[in-house]
Amino acid sequence: MNINIQLFAGLVELFGTSVLHITIDQDAISIEDLRKLITDKHPAAASQLQTCFFAKNQAYAGETDWVTSADELALIPPVSGGQPTLYEITYDSIDAAQVAAKVNHPNHGASLLFIGTTREMTHGQRTVLLEYEAYVPMAIKTMEAIGQEIADRWPGTLSAITHRLGKVAIAEASVVIAVSSPHRESCYEASRYAIERLKQIVPIWKKEIWEDGSEWKGSQTGPWNPLQMTNKE
């Protein structure tokens, strides 16, 4: 079955075409599986695809809807006037200034930008690069939950988090966290809270690659049980 998906705005530049052609060995496919198929074929577009909706025959379609080659399909990016995506996963280099801009507020007197980068030397061992993978839908949801925890704990505080997946070279950013608040005390506290909480509960895994080997790193803050980790810790 051949499926043609119309693209618009920034998606045309991202994919380099106005119509995405997909061929599958079945007579129908769900929107959920179609999204996954496109993401697998175009991993660099993963973060953008998370914010898009599919249209089937000129109406928005849900993830459980099925489509065939007879359907008119389109991939719809956020329309003008939509809010910026505060919590993102990407395979691309992170633009720190772009993340910081998401939390700009005229009534906030303080803003902080935390940038986590790949460190070359750790306990005398030389790292060549880091590699990250994630359970993307859950990672975004848990980052959104962290943002809500911050808003509840420090009223008026805004936060945005972008995390990179794939290979991240020495000195490149793997995570950028932006926080703004009416007062600096809340801003400092919320920024520290965000990165520590991210390490606790967001399903993102790091592989350290050395000159002579590699290792996937798990929890480095003691016994790991996310069900026992609350926003009061």
UniProtKB/TrEMBL annotation:
UniProt feature, compositional bias: Polar residues: 217-233
Name under which the protein is recorded: Molybdenum cofactor biosynthesis protein MoaE
Highest taxon of the lineage: Bacteria
SUPFAM superfamilies membership: MoaD/ThiS, Molybdopterin synthase subunit MoaE
Species lineage: Bacteria, Bacillati, Bacillota, Bacilli, Bacillales
Ranges where the record places region Disordered: 214-233
Family matches, as Gene3D superfamilies: 3.10.20.30, Molybdopterin biosynthesis MoaE subunit
